[in-house]
Design a protein that fits this description.
- The structure holds 2 protein chains of 2 kinds.
- By secondary structure, chain A is an alpha+beta fold.
- Chain A has a domain at 2-142 and 203-300 and 438-498: FAD/NAD(P)-binding domain, CATH 3.50.50.60.
- Chain A has helices at residues 14-23, 49-55, 127-137, 150-161, 219-225, 271-285, 349-352, 356-361, 398-414, 482-498; strands at residues 2-8, 28-31, 57-63, 68-73, 79-84, 87-92, 140-141, 168-169, 172-173, 185-187, 193-195, 229-231, 234-241, 246-252, 257-268, 298-300, 306-311, 328-332, 338-345, 366-372, 379-384, 387-391, 419-422, 433-435, 465-467.
- In chain A, strands 1, 2, 12, 13, 14, 15 and 25 form a 7-stranded mixed beta sheet that branches. Chain A has a 6-stranded antiparallel beta sheet with strand order 8-18-19-20-17-23, with helices on one face. Chain A has a 5-stranded mixed beta sheet with strand order 4-3-5-6-24.
- In chain A, strand 18 (328-332) and strand 19 form a beta hairpin.
- Chain A is globular.
- Chain A starts with a strand and ends with a helix.
- Helices cover 13% and strands 42% of the residues of chain B.
- Chain B has helices spanning 19-28, 56-66; strands at 39-48, 73-80, 86-92, 99-107, 112-115, 128-136, 139-148, 151-161.
- In chain B, strands 1-2-3-4-5-6-7-8 form an 8-stranded antiparallel beta barrel.
- The chains are: A alpha+beta, B mainly beta.
- The A-B interface holds A 1, 3, 27, 29, 229, 231, 237-240, 242, 247, 249, 251, 257-262, 282, 285-288 and B 1-10, 12-13, 30, 33, 35-38, 134-139, 162-163.
Chain lengths: 499, 163
């Protein structure tokens, strides 16, 4: 059968695109490789306890130079860890994509960031699309909460000790805030019920309180109401142009067999790694995709992510209470442009359910999360035999990562930490790192020489094929990217409907 | 929406199907580029001539055997020879098993043509001709025929898959 559009993935790009295309009258099929998550009886419950987290691993994919292997493979799992030569990457799987386990931040980049995009996106062009995302997700700053979490008071003291109070920012977060001691039910912008946040701090394990405004509570219900056919456990293998449009072959994990759907348009929004896997596999393994930009896979970035664990801090709050990541200190360069940020990402202690003895020993243990504007053309993603491989090395922007090391050391010192473990990675090399924000590889550009897609997300050389996720980034923003991805998807869907 | 009515996407969609259905799937297939098939493809025998006439339970049993190690054919490997021409061979026992019985690859009638009339094949095998069309990305349907006089007589159907 021929449908109007197949959207691959249900994260910040796919959920938005499917919703808006369906609302615009298109027949939309949304293929999501994961399952539904949440406290409802017909969904899989988010993991709790160390055993629960272990059982929620979808895959650990070793993609080293000499070893390509999937160590765990549960298609209903939530977390996927990709271990490349120099970069470890954590991604999510499920209806709602990364929104299920992200740290809730909905931050708009400065207007100057869009200078790296095609000219159509510059000069405030994105304003209405950010506003549409804002209207659906209703993010707000933790400062507007009835009660400020104690960890925020501690982080403010830290900023003051470091003489950086002027750099302290409280970004908007997509969490329904209220009185944490008396949670109540509210109706969100999509007409769905959510509970207000109880400050349990388990955001990155998935919110069992429904306080986190994940996409399966906003755009996806709206997409379903508009007639979108949502298929779960549907992992796309490859695509191929046909006379009518596009053939999409996917593996139905429930029935354990392949299926095919044909559509006039295909929107790849499977997350940066997912979208690159589909495009590169179709081009290099199936050989059914020709004429793509030579830029495919280039410009990959980890968004300058760097994590660190502080041990024995006496200043930071010894507990996780409050949304995971809701404040950071920002550093700007001489031109007043964003350079990097550093904040405390709460560890979900109660959700992990550590044994009492271990929990006692870990009092004073905190996690810092940094993001920075990596230089362009940081890395490259290629197809290798049976999967993608990421070629990335922190030395391409040593100045940034050295600055992050220094900032982490200074923060640890001010926080009274007795020990710092920085650059958390499985890579043996000191130039490795870890990211939760893989971006780029299908960067927008003015031509096929400078980008893989145009400003509308249309893939150069492949009519009817679109990309709508983080892979569109021409370079790193050094900020949590979810709101920008959603805004780009809003714009792409609108332009698709205009024809 | 009934996605299940879509074209065959898996060898399982053609197992136990009658020849008319398989021929229809082949007709609906697309012509692969000459360079499209490259490397190893898992093969699955879908049907052989006369299977239509076998009682259903026995046909199912034969189909099960097609998918077990009792069927030694594992698939095909495609590549180039020293002079750059497209060639291929059959894989036996395991996917890393020996490549025996070769063929040349060329353009056919809306299909890739597999021609077994090559010098190193035993004479009885040189009458074999194959045609392969793409059903979906990574999935191909092939028809094997015997060249008798100036006619190709279909003998069996198989799928190739590298998903």
């Amino acid at each position: 059968m021929l449908t109007d559009a197949v959207v691959v993935g249900s994260g910040f790009g796919g959920a938005v695109t499917a919703c808006r295309l369906a609302e615009g009258g298109m027949r939309v099929v949304l293929l999501e490789r994961g399952t539904w998550w949440g406290p409802e009886s017909d969904r899989r419950a988010f993991p709790r306890g160390l055993g629960g987290v272990a059982r929620a691993v979808r895959n650990v994919r070793l993609a080293r130079a000499n070893v390509h292997r999937n160590l765990v493979r549960d298609p209903t799992g939530l977390y996927e860890l990709h271990l490349h030569d120099q970069l470890d990457i954590l991604t999510a799987s499920g209806v709602g994509g990364g929104s299920l386990i992200y740290t809730n931040v909905q931050e708009e980049p400065d207007a100057e960031f869009f200078e790296c995009f095609p000219p159509e996106l510059r000069g405030g062009e994105m304003r209405p699309w950010f506003d549409r995302v804002r209207a659906m997700q209703r993010p707000e700053s933790i400062e507007k909460a009835a009660v400020l979490p104690p960890k925020n008071e501690a982080f403010r003291r830290l900023a003051k000790v470091m003489d950086r109070a002027d750099r302290l920012e409280h970004p908007d977060i997509a969490v329904v805030l209220g009185d944490p001691d008396h949670p109540e039910t509210v109706v969100n912008a999509a007409g769905e019920e959510q509970r207000t946040c109880n400050y349990c701090g388990n955001c990155v394990l998935g919110c069992m309180e429904t306080a986190k405004t994940t996409l399966d509570r906003t755009y996806i219900p709206a997409a379903l109401r508009a007639g979108t056919d949502v298929r779960i456990l549907a992992e796309v293998e490859g695509i191929c142009p046909t006379r009518e449009g596009w053939q999409v072959r996917w593996f139905d994990h429930a029935a354990k067999r392949h299926r095919v759907v044909t559509a006039a348009r295909v929107v790849l929004a499977a997350g940066t790694l997912g979208t690159l896997r589909i495009l590169l596999k179709s081009r290099d393994r199936f050989r059914t995709l020709h004429g793509l930009s030579p830029r495919l896979g280039l410009g990959f970035t980890g968004n300058g992510d760097q994590g660190a664990i502080l041990l024995g801090s006496s200043l930071l709050f010894a507990g996780e209470a409050g949304p995971t990541f809701n404040a950071f200190m920002r550093s700007r360069d001489s031109a007043d442009e964003h350079r990097f940020l550093i904040g405390e990402a709460g560890i979900p202690w109660t959700g992990l359910g550590l044994p009492t003895l271990a929990a006692r020993r870990l009092v004073g243990t905190h996690m810092l999360l940094c993001m920075g504007r990596e230089r362009p053309d940081a890395g490259r993603v290629t197809w290798r035999t049976d999967g993608i491989a990421v070629d990335w090395d922190s030395r391409h922007d040593a100045a940034l990562f050295d600055a992050l090391d220094s900032e982490i050391a200074a923060t640890a010192d001010a926080a009274g930490a007795t020990q710092v473990i920085s650059r958390i990675t499985s890579a043996a090399s000191p130039h490795g790192n870890f990211t939760v924000h893989p971006l780029g590889g299908c960067g927008m550009g003015e031509t096929a020489e400078t980008g893989v897609t145009d400003h509308c997300g249309r893939v150069f050389g492949a009519e009817g094929l679109y990309v709508a996720d983080g892979s569109l980034y021409p370079q790193a923003s050094g900020l949590p990217p979810s709101m920008t991805i959603a805004a780009l998807a809003e714009r792409i869907a609108d332009l698709m409907l205009e024809g | 929406m009934a996605l299940e009515t879509a074209a065959p996407a898996d060898s399982a969609d053609l197992r136990n199907a009658d020849w008319v259905t398989i021929e229809a799937a082949f007709e609906g297939g697309a012509e692969p580029d000459l360079t499209e098939l490259d490397g190893a493809y898992r093969g699955r025998l879908v049907s052989v001539w006369g299977l239509d006439m076998v009682p259903t339970p026995l046909r199912w049993l034969i189909d099960v055997v097609f998918g077990t190690p009792l069927m030694p054919w594992r698939g095909k490997r495609f590549g180039r020879n020293a002079s750059g021409d497209r060639t291929g061979s059959n894989i036996w026992l395991t996917m890393r098993g020996p490549d025996i019985v070769s063929f040349d690859v060329g353009d056919g009638e809306r299909s890739l043509r597999l021609d077994y009339d090559v010098a190193r094949n035993p004479a009885p095998l040189r009458v074999i001709r194959g045609d392969v069309r793409r059903l979906a990305p990574g999935l191909y349907l092939g028809r094997m025929a015997a060249r008798l006089g100036d006619r190709d007589t279909p003998v069996l159907w198989f799928t190739l898959d590298n998903a």
